[in-house]
């Protein structure tokens, strides 16, 4: 039994005589800085015996179970501030000597592709080296192929460059990943040379190492590495001419790829000119398969001429959107049919590896790519997209009936349009979602964060 230091008060002495088995914590002089939290170990050790009840036995707090402690620590780490996703545009913006290279990564939409990937190496060339390729007056499509050859789909930091197995390696590039490169034309040869130099060359250029490593611009290990190389990689395949947008025949392309029925709808409706007019600035088309169009034709025949045009235009988006861009930019997307209050939009949503298009009437899935030739990309989908402005919304998406006594507005329905969600009803649904679901999620998130932080603190004080 540990006796307290200093004089023993009468009450304590009496307690000791009547409770000889009782444990008394060691008494230490109280200082102003001593924590008074009753759960803190230091507070327990510094409490005077006279402050302890003679009828209460003090026991140390039970230790936090190991599993709970590990879980709390794991949650603490998961809540720690994570590094922001890399952004190639911002990285290069810090280095003015790469401004031209940076500019054309944006123009060709390669910047968005680079930002989406988790493991990537960018072989950047300075403004002087870019002038050599720009003097060839390549089209935007061809320039994209050349620059995509400078984006390796693997991580190469400075250390890895100088420690390549067997001194040489072939690595795939984004040019190869697009499928535009024939054979191994989309591969780059990296070889360690004498004097500590590292050479780079396109595989289809006879493995001529026409560029060498200059310096590391920025490295986020195993995420993104930006390396400065001396020259633009030359490749006959990448520099081959690509058709200009004006030479692309949309209906001919669709007809050859299992979308002939949809191509016929574009021509018959008179919507082709609108598609052609948007080619120069970028165009994404979602083409329903022949089987899907055939099954939909009974509904299509009931539409007016104006509605048929809107329906066809609903399958086009006035901007180039690669599959990677769609996956990383889920949400509401306007279409060629969008016109002020007439929304004609749909929602892009990932479903595992699939990308789905939701219209509140039907949900379609992208099943393949018909053509990907910037500024045009065409996807094949398994269902016809039906806008809620023309067709009745699915039961699960229909707005709830209004409460009794609140129906003050006169209900009107256009003679030539089926029932559909009204803009007012859609806005009400969005407001309810934002006030109810959104608020609940936010509140729930705060509760979870609070609980996790409490667990973290308990681990720290053990």
From TrEMBL:
Residues 39-57 have a biased composition (Low complexity). InterPro entries: FAS1_dom_sf, FAS1_domain, Plant_FLA. It holds the Pfam family Fasciclin. Residues 24-34 have a biased composition (Polar residues). PROSITE patterns: FAS1 (PS50213). It comes from the Eukaryota. Residues 85-233, 246-385 form the FAS1 domain. One of its GO terms (cellular component) is plasma membrane. Its main location: membrane. Keywords: Cell membrane, Glycoprotein, GPI-anchor, Lipoprotein, Membrane, Proteoglycan, Repeat, Signal. May be a cell surface adhesion protein. Belongs to the fasciclin-like AGP family. This is FAS1 domain-containing protein.
């Amino acid at each position: 039994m540990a006796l307290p230091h200093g004089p023993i008060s009468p009450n304590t002495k009496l307690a000791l005589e009547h409770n000889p088995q009782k444990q008394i914590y060691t008494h230490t002089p109280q200082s102003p800085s001593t924590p008074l939290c009753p759960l803190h170990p230091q507070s327990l050790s510094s409490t005077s015996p006279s402050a302890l009840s003679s009828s209460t036995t003090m026991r140390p707090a039970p230790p936090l179970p190991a599993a709970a402690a590990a879980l709390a620590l794991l949650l603490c780490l998961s809540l720690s501030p994570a590094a922001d996703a890399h952004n190639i545009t911002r990285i290069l913006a810090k280095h003015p000597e790469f401004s031209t290279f940076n500019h054309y990564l944006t123009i060709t939409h390669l910047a968005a592709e680079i930002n989406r990937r988790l493991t990537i190496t960018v072989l950047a060339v300075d403004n002087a080296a870019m002038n050599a390729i720009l003097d060839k007056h390549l089209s935007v499509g061809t320039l994209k192929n050349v620059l995509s050859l400078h984006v390796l789909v693997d991580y190469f930091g400075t250390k890895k460059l100088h420690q390549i197995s067997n001194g040489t390696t072939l690595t795939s590039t984004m040019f190869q990943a697009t499928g535009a490169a024939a054979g191994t034309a989309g591969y780059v040869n990296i070889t360690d040379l004498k004097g500590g130099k590292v050479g780079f060359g396109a595989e289809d250029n006879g493995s001529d190492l026409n560029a060498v490593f200059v310096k590391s611009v920025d490295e986020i290990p195993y995420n993104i590495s930006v390396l400065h190389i001396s020259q633009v990689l030359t490749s006959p395949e990448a520099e081959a001419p690509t058709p200009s947008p004006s030479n692309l025949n949309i209906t001919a392309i669709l007809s050859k790829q299992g979308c002939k029925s949809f191509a016929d709808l574009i021509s018959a409706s008179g919507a082709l000119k609108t598609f052609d007019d948007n080619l120069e600035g970028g165009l994404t088309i979602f083409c329903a398969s022949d089987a899907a169009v055939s099954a939909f034709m009974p509904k299509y025949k009931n539409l007016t001429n104006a509605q048929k045009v809107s329906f066809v235009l609903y399958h086009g988006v006035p901007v180039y959107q690669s599959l990677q861009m769609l996956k990383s930019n889920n949400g509401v997307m306007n279409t060629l049919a969008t016109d002020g209050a007439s929304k004609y939009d749909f929602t892009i949503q990932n479903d595992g590896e699939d990308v789905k298009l939701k219209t509140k009437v039907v949900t379609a899935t992208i099943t393949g790519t018909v053509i990907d030739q910037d500024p045009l990309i065409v996807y094949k989908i398994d269902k016809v997209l039906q806008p809620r402005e023309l067709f009745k919304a699915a039961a699960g998406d229909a707005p709830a009936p209004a409460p009794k006594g609140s129906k003050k507005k006169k209900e009107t329905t256009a003679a030539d349009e089926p029932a559909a969600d009204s803009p007012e009803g859609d806005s009400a649904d969005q407001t309810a979602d934002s006030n109810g679901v959104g608020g609940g999620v936010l509140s729930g998130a705060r509760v979870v964060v609070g609980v996790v932080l409490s667990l973290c603190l308990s681990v720290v004080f053990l």
